[in-house]
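Reopening: SHSP domain-containing protein still failing for me.
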Amino acid sequence: MSSVSGLAYASWGNNVLDAFSIEPWDPFDGLPFRSSSSGPRSFSFVGARVDWKETPEVHVFRANLWGLKQEEVRVEVEDGRILRISAERSRRADDAWHRVGRRGGRFLRRFRLPENARMEQVRTAMENGVLTVTVPKGVLEGRLS
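Support: Ran it again with your exact input. Result attached.
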């Protein structure tokens, strides 16, 4: 006896013959709001993780922001000590795709840096979708910290 119960949990994407086009069924797909299960589809951007490491000379931040242009990413200093990294990807209303897998969205992370951070010397670089922010350290009370 054959079973078709698996079809209730999958949609066939663009091509019925392509086994890799099967995706989990989302009962909220197409509604004006998104379900919590829709997160993984846009996770690579909206839920982007930021790594922070500290060396004796600098603080280094790295964020995977694949698919974004450098001009879509902003790095700012707020209140003298807070590093703010933000980005936004929006879809144009006149785009008419057959299938949309990449969603628009916003990304925002803030980091409070210690007093020895030289916020006026922040450097940024973006290569292959990876943003690197470098914040040099200064001398604090007569010592390098």
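The helical segments are 39-46. If you still see a failure, please send the error message rather than a screenshot.
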